[in-house]
Please model this.
Amino acid sequence: MALIAHDGPLGREILDFEAQRQAALVSGDPALLERILHPDLIHVHSSGQVHDKAGFIAHVGRMGGFAAITRGALSLREAAGGVLIAGPTVNRVRRLDSGAVVDLEAFGTVLAVRGAGGWQVLLSQITPFAGHRGGQGAAR
Model:
């Protein structure tokens, strides 16, 4: 898997898509999420819960969107017909059980593929950093 330079044309395009993905999750807008999420989406939460596209859009709606998403240094790699976006993330989320806003510090991975309408998320997955418990339960 070849690295993609952030300052090259594809790198800038992917970083722009990643910003759009974050904005869609923060807004919780179902139309935006419908557009950027692939029909065959698999989303693996930090809790291990797995959602398909419809389930994930409904989940984000129940949360009222993310409060914020902050990504650290990202690795961009070409991957079998798509692009792998990987790196640290802090997802500020509302816990469904209490409504409390918590920061989930984790490593996030997104596999994006280009379709007729542009880039879409085919797979997204987040794994909390070892010992981090602040956001556990946020995805339930």
Summary: DSSP finds three helices and seven strands in the chain. The helical segments are 9-27, 30-36, 53-63. The longest strand covers residues 101-115.
